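Reading a protein record of the kind used here takes little practice once its layout is understood. Each number in the token line that follows is a code from a learned vocabulary of backbone shapes. One such record is shown here in full, so that the layout can be seen directly:
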Amino acid sequence: MPKQKNVIKTCRDLIEKFDSTVPNNRKDLESLAGVGRKTANVVLNTAFGQPTMAVDTHIFRVGNRTGLATGKTVLIVEKKLVERIPEDFIVDAHHYLILHGRYTCQARTPKCGACPVYEECMFKDKAAFLEL
């Protein structure tokens, strides 16, 4: 279903099923059209301050490269991050990890020479990117 149709259906469902209120739990959020685990985590974390981790491609890469949370699936990485990051920091942690993955620990040309966690990082090819 195209995104436009999901947005319209989600709006209708919010009005009809949830009395025009965005739900504050994963089950109800994921019942909305086009809302999966990652989007539900973003809403729960950002709108409701819940200790969730929305793992996108950047966080998945950073978690695996640095060793902060290694795993073959986003769910494994998510669970490890939630266990590992103190609750006081988790509400903001996914924003910092996304930014780190977007601007420093980039997919093709990571800027390892500018990385604040270079010494602790487990990325096996990091030495090749020291000059970037």
In short: The first helix runs from residue 3 to 18. The mean pLDDT is 94. Residues 17 and 85 are 34 Å apart (CA to CA). The two ends are 41 Å apart (CA to CA).
